[in-house]
Amino acid sequence: MYNNPGTPLPHGMMDNSYQIPNQNIYFDDGMQFYRTKNQNTITKVAPVPPPKYSNAENMEMMESIDDKSVKKSVIFDNVKPIFVTMRLLGILPVVRRGSIFIISTKWIIYSFLLLLAVAGFIGYLKYYNINVTRTAEGRFEEAVIDYLFTVYLVPIFVNILALYEAKKQANVLTQMVSFERIYTRMFKKRIGFDLGSKPLVMTVVLLILGCGVMVITHFSMANFIIYQVVPYCYINVITFIIGGAWYIYCDIIGNIATCLAEEFQFALRNIEYSNRVCDYRSLWMILSKIIRNVGNSFGYTLTFLCLYLFFVITLTVYGLLSQIQEGMGVKDIGLTITGVSATLMLYFICDEAHYASTCVRTYFQKKILLVELSFMNEDAQQEISMFLRATEMNPTDMCLCGFFDVNRNLFKSLLATMVTYLVVLLQFQISIPSSGDDVTNNTTNTTPSAPK
Fold first, then answer.
1. Residue 301 to residue 278: CA distance in whole angstroms
2. Is the dihedral of CA 213, 216, 221, 224 positive or negative?
3. Which family does it belong to (predicted)?
4. What are phi and psi of 136, to 5 degrees?
5. Is residue 142 a contact partner of residue 136, using CB atoms and an 8 Å limit?
6. CA 47 to the chain's CA centroid
């Protein structure tokens, strides 16, 4: 512009007083407030005071909020007993790295080696049980116990399904820990729930119960050697632990939803907290996503487990009903224990999922509908309406990879189907003649021919 020598330069170009230094309009505009009267240097800014937390554990809270520190998760502390047990059993090769959960190569190798060892032992036992079934004499109900020994070995496929879904399990655990961190940063306090020693006690009880049920079943129904019972105990413990893990996940989600709903109701009673509605809505959206992901992470494993429990219940009940006319014996104790334990496990799986879904959706909707809107401003009322619509539009049912929803209706449907199969089996039993019936004499009396 000023390259022409004949063009006069503006005032200030000769002494460089016209040049504007590089400044930041966002930060340098407020520098005059940090300058003294006689100095052009910037003074030090006082540090920001630490936040005032609602609880007394300030030091622990600072550690949980700091990204560089090791996070202490209340949720993971409640999951840890069942988490470690599943990893030792070779069905969850997941480790924790800070605030995330990843698949560990070391534990994958351990899981496959354990699976191969158990599968080799089961191959021998399966061949042995097939021979027992073939030598069983009498009607079909007398061989039910022998068939059950083969059925008890079927859940070994759960290991393969669990390893396939291990990555989903790791993602769910990461999301749950992230939810806790978001809650902590948002409300400056720890999440207000703790199951206490319940997860640890339940894990120990399930281990003892899984082994005890199988030992009693075998020693009351067959003359098995002790070392042959070990794979059966391992497989039965796996089924119990997977059901226990599902129960713990659902219980944690239900308790979190209940705690969050109570805090939401308390916050809306105070006008100063009415602007927190959007925060609770965001947390609820995350929680509804977690409950759906929990169902998907157990999709194939729990589907297989429910079908297995249904089949075991049907066989054991049929065996017990078949023995009524011949008199109850010692071997019926094993059938009774197996049937009762399988029925209780199936019930708790369905009931706890129903409880978690109800807490996340229905319980929150009740709290929202009881909100007094008269003292709230228009923005808060709009947030309440959006929150209520979100609870209606977002599904909170625990669906197993789209196959079926796990709730109390599933338990009732399985029982109704079981009754239908029992009626068919009992009709088949009636049509078979008893072993004490007289056999028709097929010999013909031949008379000697008269001589001609």
1. 36
2. positive
3. Belongs to the insect chemoreceptor superfamily. Gustatory receptor (GR) family.
4. -70, 135
5. yes
6. 44
Where in the chain are the domains?
Answer: 69-431
User: What pTM value is reported for the model?
Assistant: 0.76
Tokens 């496990």 correspond to: 345
Contact 246, 158 (CB under 8 A): no
- The whole-chain average pLDDT of the chain stands at 76
Spatial distance between the Cα atoms of 307 and 304, rounded to a whole number of angstroms: 5
d(CA 40, CA 22): 17
pLDDT tens, position by position, 257-284: 999 888 888 877 765 555 678 888 888 8
DSSP strands (E only) in 106-247? none
CB 427: neighbour CB atoms within 10 A?
Answer: 9
Which amino acid belongs to residue 89? Answer: L
User: Given 3-state DSSP classes, what are the helix, strand and coil percentages for the chain, each rounded to the nearest 5?
Assistant: 65, 5, 30
Please check whether residue 156 is in contact with residue 119, taking contact to mean a CB–CB distance below 8 angstroms.
yes
Taking the C-alpha atoms of residue 355 and residue 357, their distance in angstroms, rounded to an integer, is 6
The residues pairing with 35 across neighbouring beta strands, listed in sequence order, are 42
Look at residues 295, 356, 257 and name the one whose alpha carbon lies nearest to residue 169.
295
Structure token pair of residue 199: 């997860």
Q: Return the structure tokens found at 276.
A: 């927190």
Cα dihedral 345, 347, 348, 353, rounded to 10, equals 130
* Residue 336 tokens, joined: 């009774």
Residues in the chain: 452
Tokens 């480790």 found at? 95
pLDDT at 334: 77
Q: Is the four-CA dihedral 296, 297, 298, 303 of positive or negative sign?
A: positive
Q: State both tokens at 82.
A: 């069942």
Q: In the structure encoding, which two tokens stand for residue 332, read together? A: 């019926």
In degrees and rounded to multiples of 5, residue 317 shows phi and psi of: -65, -40
341/65 Cα distance (integer angstroms): 44
At 332 the three-state DSSP class reads helix
